[in-house]
Amino acid sequence: MAGVTEAAGHVDLAISGMTCASCAVRIQKRLNRLDGVAATVNFASEQAAVSFDPAKVGMADLVGAVEAAGYHASLPEAGRDDGDPARPYLTRLALATVVSVPVALLAWMAALRFPGWQWASLGLATPVVAYGGWPFHRAAALNARHGVATMDTLISIGTLAAWTWSVVVLTAGLDEGVYFDAATLITALVLLGRYLEARAKRRSGDAVRALLELGPKEAHLLRDGHEVLVPIGQLQAGDRFVVRPGEKVATDGVIETGHSTLDCSMITGEPVPLEVGPGQEVTGATLNVSGRLVVRATKVGSATALAQVAGLVAQAQAGKAPVQRLVDRVSAVFVPVVIGLSLATLAGWLLLGGVGPTAAFSAAIAVIVIACPCALGLATPTALMVGTGRGAQLGIVIKGPEVLEQTRKVTTVVLDKTGTLTEGRMEVVALVPGEGVGEQELLRLVAAAEDASEHPIARAIAGCGRQRLGRLSAAEGFNNSAGQGVEAVVDGHQVIAGRRSQGRGPGVALAPTLLAKAEELEEGGATVIAVTSDGQVLGLVALADRVKPTSRQAVAELRALGLTPVLLTGDNERTARAVAAEVGIERVVANVLPDGKAAEVRRLQEVGEVVAMVGDGINDAPALAQADLGLSIGTGTDIAIEASDLTLVSGDLRAAAYAIALSRRTLATIKGNLFWAFAYNVVAVPLAIAGVVNPIIAAASMAFSSVFVVSNSLRLRRFRPARSVA
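^ thats the sequence. predicted structure below, dont judge the formating
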């Protein structure tokens, strides 16, 4: 899978040799016996997520515990592809298929039989049972040495029993039926099931492997003014590298020179290219569409956004949903119970059924073969792997399997305003010149005066002036009064700009028309700056944090999922209600400090609501952690992302609805898989005990059940947000 999680006291081990869910349960128990270790083993992803106390155990202890259980553990290498896991089955499957057909025809069609046909069947069946079934026999013997039984035990006992019975009947000259056809066909069908299962399991992890392959392999490093092509692994933080048009950005960094557009769809899921220039951050593996860029690397290797997304997805896939706990308990006792039922079936038919040894033996073998703990073991992890992988493709990172349970229960979604519903930056939305003043003159003077300030409002005004007018005039005598505004001399004019307060600008009364316009703009949620020059009113500048174009649609889609949206913000009531009205939210809680946000979420929970919180800033982190389900905007702060359960990489609020819809669909798939896996065994085992199905039909049914569960999970690859939410 995706590689090692290199955090203190945590490691993801690659496990090889597992053949069914019972194997995973056994390894998990062995690891958890170690002092200071908490481990979960995922059969589908073939990984063990292990948290441990480095003071008590080391890597050698963890690997030793796995190997003591009869399996192999190693540290997976990021980006390594171990090839097609289904390939080892191909040769054995080919032999079993070719040989089992003539053996079955001889057993079923008397017209094809010839003198000595049973001996010929023995000669054909023996290499199939021995070579084709060797993986099952080897695993069964290894497990027996450790005093446990797995799915391989059932298959090995079933095929060897059928072959041994037939050899005894043939060599002793008994007047009983032989089961060479059952021995070969069971081996062939189980190998086919394992082959298809391995192929399907690999497809379920394709999304994360594809993520890791997206990164570039080389970078044009700048050394002494010259470009040097180096492997990506040689890049270090602080290095400067060139990105030409059509190339991928080598790693996360900041643009030093150049302007271009970047295709960021592989990270954000958004198809619209992003305009970038000096000072802006860029993400590794995004595609440079147009201009030449010089970028200074800020993060390399496992610290990059791409590596962290892949790592989070891999961690989620390696975990277990709470619903899996029941499956683990069932799998641990399933195989011994099946063996006991098989022996009871043999004894029951011989003593009470009034039939011969052949019929009794057939029923007993069918019980062993038809039971399928593999389907139970695959039901949860395969759906989880495909669902989280599909989420990664859509720019949604699901941090853990337990998140899926919460999405089903959520009733209320609490939304932050700034950076979630809105763009998160102030923009000039209106210029209102006073009488006899031109709009361009108003902007020229106020932009020059504000240019020396670092306040977000000042930066927005100066930026607007630079965009519309080009170079700004130099300001002299600049003075910034906190909470009052700025004062400077621009081209010989004393310019003062500050927030309007109680109908007055910076020391000068506004004309009735300007006052009315200011109140109108403020009612709409804008911040209004009054500007004077040499004591005369120049006019008004209105700024606002624009609502994202997709926010209204996002709120509608959240409602379509049965959720009640609530706007929770630290901004003032008037601005909050203006934004809420624009996006279609009725419930508004404003003027809330960071700890107040968490308290508001707690209050909703106390009255019975199951709360999802969507936010992006440091001030949202307490509420994200308090919520039953935390969703962070990926363009926000690291602390907000760390506190959340789901990360929306794109920054588009619609992804919140998509994430909840995908999580619910994944959970529904898991439950559907478990229903069919349990139902299969509940129906199939009694039918085998009753003698309704023979061993060959049992083998086909067992193989089909595993393939069905995995194939059902793979349908999540076709999840389409718009269709699913609507």
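The chain has a mean pLDDT of 80.
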